Amino acid sequence: MARIVYLNGDYLPETEARVSIFDRGFLMADAVYEVTSVLGGKLIDFDGHMARLARSLGELDMANPLTQETWLEIHRELLRRNDISDGGVYLQVTRGAPNDRDFVFPDPEKIPQTVVLFTQSKPGLIDSPSAKTGIRVISIPDIRWGRRDIKTVQLLYPSMGKMMAKAAGCDDAWLVEDGFVTEGSSNNAYIVKDGKIITRDLSRDILHGITRAAVLRFARESQMEVEERPFTIAEAQAADEAFITSATMFVTPVIEIDGTAIGTGTPGNVAPRLRAIYFEESLKTGI
Ligand code: PLP
């Protein structure tokens, strides 16, 4: 059965959804996106993802094409039509398709934005093998643009980073700028030392992860100590634990960085505990 996707007001089989070759998402990466995870048919941290979407659009002088209620309606309708229990919903808004290529933004009064949503089914997402084994990462220079706080579809370098990791026999890459880790290629990065959770503070240098916000809140509520500051690869290699967070990986342990085992080289206590708390709490508020 073909997946049903949403395109500019219509629900269509994926094979029939068509976007213009002049779409600025395609030609200029002039687009923002969100990914909301789905567990047991519920959207996790939906309000957070919608708030970040609004912020990303605003930072790029794009209007939010739909209301929060309509976004929710579309998400739910796609889950229903595609019978999704576990997985995610991807959404993308582009500045639309003028009738030619031009660096200048088109007039938003004349050119409607392109809105695309589709589901991804991932049965058993909670019990993914990497959560039990942990993942191995390499470090690479962070050569992305200076507005990483905006969730744009410019994902070529993160994609290259994953390929570099794969070529090195690892799972992912941590990005390093001026000697400090910014974040993972598609996730936020953390270390744990003497029970304290350390992760880079929010700025334009990293994406403000929705999972990050939730996990740090739950950690503080559970009396765990949190310090938001940059750390180096050497500090990470000497840490007791390391982990990442994202809407698709939740909390996933990191067991090796650039060939050096972290702690015992197996997932420690803090990351699995935070993962369990994250599921428990966010399932309560899933909609
Ligand atoms: N950092 C980057 C660069 C990302 O691409 C992502 C997710 O795609 C994250 C962090 C994690 O954000 P979230 O927890 O909202 O998925």
Please tell me about this protein's structure.
Strands 7, 8, 9, 10, 11, 12, 13, 14 and 15 form a nine-stranded mixed β-sheet that branches. Strands 2-1-6-5-3-4 form a six-stranded antiparallel β-sheet. The model has no long low-confidence stretch (mean pLDDT 97). With 287 residues, it is an alpha+beta fold. The protein is globular. 38% of the residues are buried. Helix 6 packs across helix 8. Bound molecules: pyridoxal-5'-phosphate. The site of pyridoxal-5'-phosphate has 12 residues, from helix 6 and strand 13.
Quick take:
With 287 residues, the protein is α+β, with helices and mostly antiparallel strands. The protein has helices at 24-28, 46-59, 68-82, 129-133, 156-167, 210-221, 233-237, 270-285, and strands at 4-7, 10-13, 31-39, 42-43, 87-94, 114-121, 135-141, 172-177, 180-184, 188-193, 196-199, 225-228, 241-246, 250-257, 260-261.
Q: Main attributes?
A:
287 residues, alpha+beta, 8 helices, 29% strand, binds pyridoxal-5'-phosphate
